Amino acid sequence: MELRHFRYFVAVAEELSFTKAARRLHISQPPLSQHIQDLERELGAVLFDRNRGHVSLTEAGSLFLAEARIVLGQAAHAVDVAKRAGRGEVGVLRVGFTATAPFTRQFSRVVQAYRRQLPHVRLALKFSTTEPILEALRMSELDIGLIRPPTGAVLPDNITRIPVLRDRLMVALHASHPLAQSGGPVAILDLADEPFVLRPDGVGAGFYEQVYTLCNDAGFTPHVEQEANEAATILGLIAAGLGVTILPASLQAIAVNDVVWRELVTSGDTISVLYLVFRSDEGNTFQRSCFVELMQEFSETCQDAARRQTIEAKV
C-alpha cells in the first residue's frame, strides 16, 4: 500500500464519482478504478458500493476515510517539516552567555526578534562563564557564545569574535557613601582603602580580572570584604552597606534600592567588551547566521542611540 492509494481513495470518497475523482487527480478513470480495487483487495474490505451512475461509501469505507485523511495530513506535515528543516527554519540554536549578557539591550531585542523571525527554532539558552563557553564551542556543544574575555585575551584561531557592546566599567556603591554624595566621578585611588564586594580573583568573567588589573595598576590590591559570584548578589550586598564594587554599566538594568553608580576615573582601560563568538571552521547554518545578523543589526542600533544620548546630554 502506497501513499498514492490513500490520495486516490480520498478523492473518490469526496467526489463520490470515479470520473470526477480521475479529473481531479489528472489521471484516466480505468487506472483509478484499478488502484481502488487493488486497495480493497489488500484491505480485504469493500470500500464503495458501486451502482449504475452512483457511488457511495460502505461502513468500512467511511471508517477508512477518517483514517486516510489523518495519514495524508501527517504525511503533508512531515514533508513541510523536512523542507523547513532543510531551509533552517526549524531545529535548535544553542547559545551560551555570561551573566551580564541578558541585561544588555542587544540581548533582549535580538532574542525577541529571532523568535519572531524563526518561531519554530528553539533557543536553548545556557548561562555560563567565558572559559566553559569557549570549551563548549570547541566540543560543538554550543553554536554561539556571548562572552567577556579579559582585555588582551587571545582566543583560539578557529573562533570568530564580533564585538557587540563596548561597556564602560563604573563604581557601584551605597547611596549614603561619602564618595556617592558629590555625584561626580570616583578616582580609582579613592577606592584603595575601601572594602570591596567582588568575585574571587581569577574566577569567571573577564571584567572581574580587568577590575583586579585596574586596581593593581593603580598601586593597590582590592580588599575583598565579601565574595559573591553573581552580579545581582553583589549589588544586593552593596545595598546592605558591605562595600563598593566595579561593574559594567549595563548592569544598571538591575535596579537595586540604595545603590548608586558613578563614573570611574583611571588611567587604565575601563572598557569591557561583550563579544559574540562562534566556530569559523564549522559549517554555517541558517539559524546561526540569522542570530549573528540580528546581533550585529541591533548592536549598531543601540550604539547609535547611545551616541545620540551622549551628544544630547552635552548640549
UniProtKB/TrEMBL annotation:
<dbReference type="InterPro" id="IPR036390">
    <property type="entry name" value="WH_DNA-bd_sf"/>
</dbReference>
<dbReference type="InterPro" id="IPR036388">
    <property type="entry name" value="WH-like_DNA-bd_sf"/>
</dbReference>
<dbReference type="InterPro" id="IPR000847">
    <property type="entry name" value="LysR_HTH_N"/>
</dbReference>
<keyword id="KW-0805">Transcription regulation</keyword>
<feature type="domain" description="HTH lysR-type">
    <location>
        <begin position="1"/>
        <end position="58"/>
    </location>
</feature>
<comment type="similarity">
    <text>Belongs to the LysR transcriptional regulatory family.</text>
</comment>
<dbReference type="InterPro" id="IPR005119">
    <property type="entry name" value="LysR_subst-bd"/>
</dbReference>
<keyword id="KW-0804">Transcription</keyword>
<keyword id="KW-0238">DNA-binding</keyword>
<dbReference type="GO" id="GO:0003700">
    <property type="term" value="F:DNA-binding transcription factor activity"/>
</dbReference>
<dbReference type="Pfam" id="PF03466">
    <property type="entry name" value="LysR_substrate"/>
</dbReference>
<dbReference type="GO" id="GO:0032993">
    <property type="term" value="C:protein-DNA complex"/>
</dbReference>
<protein>
    <submittedName>
        <fullName>Uncharacterized HTH-type transcriptional regulator YnfL</fullName>
    </submittedName>
</protein>
<dbReference type="GO" id="GO:0003677">
    <property type="term" value="F:DNA binding"/>
</dbReference>
<dbReference type="Pfam" id="PF00126">
    <property type="entry name" value="HTH_1"/>
</dbReference>
